[in-house]
Amino acid sequence: MGSFIVDKFYLFFQGVLVFQTIFLGIMYTITLKKDIFFYSTYLLAQTVYFFWNAPYTFFGISDNTVFDSSFYLYLNTPLIIITNLLYSYFLMYFFTGLYNSKRKDFLIKLMAGVALFLITISSISIYVEQSNQYIFYLANLLSTGFSIYLLTGLFKRRIPNSSWIVTGMILNIFGNALTILMIVLWRSNIHHLFTDEYPLFFMRCGILADIIFYLIAILKKWNFQEKQLAIQQIEKQLAIEKIRNKISGQLHDDIGSTLSGVSIYSHLANDLLEKGEYNNAKKSLHIIQNSTDEMVEKLA
Which of the residues 39, 111, 181, 268 has the least number of beta carbons within 10 Å of its own beta carbon? Predict the structure, then answer.
């Protein structure tokens, strides 16, 4: 009964994994956001990994037929390393703009170099017929260490809108830790359902939780960014209105001053005309003309 339920969960989980890989791939083509790209490729790598680590469940092929093949021996561990690296890149880009750190960027570059080194060592170990199991543990340890480093930084800085993705990260780490524990128990000759038949069950649970919380985090992050954008637009509009009001006030003062001058000089010109002082009256009219021309230029 327990095996039947777990098998059904495996099928359900794999369907979710495939759907989310396609869905997020489409989302990336629309948004071109790097965090979505790395998460979709991470899920793609996980999809491949879980397909060929449960060949009988999905394809009716004997597990030993796949696990004993050179194709599996050479590529399984590198796939794990690449998957962990993709998840680390996803975390880096998801928190870009929310949590910037030169040390974080340096660690990612270091992990990329270490990943290439581990893949090389894994291939050499298989070629000389030595176990490369320690590389599996080391790759998971590095990825977990980077995730914990990010979690520590997030808690210290109290990054807004990070609680959902942090929850997903914690559950993913916990699922990986339980899976490694199952493998260690199996190697220690402690046998039960999850050590013998389904050691990756807890890893799947962690990834499923991570997917759910990531989707929530995306919606929360986009909502937060939309609000920030709206606030910036309002602040920009207010700044424009402030400038307009300032200019309007200055023009009001200039127009008032000009009209006062026009009124004074027009009365003066009228008096000068009555007295027959045509030259002086002409000068007053010239001053009025210059003042109105200047005001027309300011209003243009």
Answer: 181
How far from each other are the two terminal CA atoms of the chain, in whole angstroms?
85
Helix runs in 158-200, H state only = 163-187, 193-196
Residues 6 or more apart whose CB falls under 8 angstroms from that of 64 comprise: none
| Closest residue by Cα to residue 143 from 54, 197, 210 | 210
Residue closest to 19 by CA, chosen among 211, 166, 222, 165: 211
Rounded alpha-carbon distances, angstroms, from residue 71 to 52, 68, 77, 134, 145: 11, 9, 11, 19, 29
Question: How far apart are the C-alpha atoms of 207 and 213, rounded to whole Å?
Answer: 10
> Does the predicted TM-score (pTM) go above 0.90?
no
274-268-279 Cα angle (round to 5): 65
DSSP-based three-state secondary structure for 198: coil
Would you give the DSSP letter of residue 276? T
- Tens digits of pLDDT across the chain (300 residues): 567 788 888 888 889 999 999 999 998 999 888 889 999 999 999 999 888 888 877 888 887 888 888 888 888 888 988 998 898 888 888 877 666 677 777 888 888 888 889 889 888 888 887 877 778 778 888 888 888 887 787 777 777 667 788 888 888 888 888 888 888 888 888 888 778 777 888 888 988 998 888 888 888 777 777 777 777 788 788 777 777 777 666 666 666 666 676 667 676 667 766 667 667 666 666 777 776 766 666 655
Task: List the alpha helices (DSSP H) in the chain.
Answer: 2-31, 34-52, 55-59, 63-67, 70-94, 102-127, 133-157, 163-187, 193-196, 201-275, 278-299
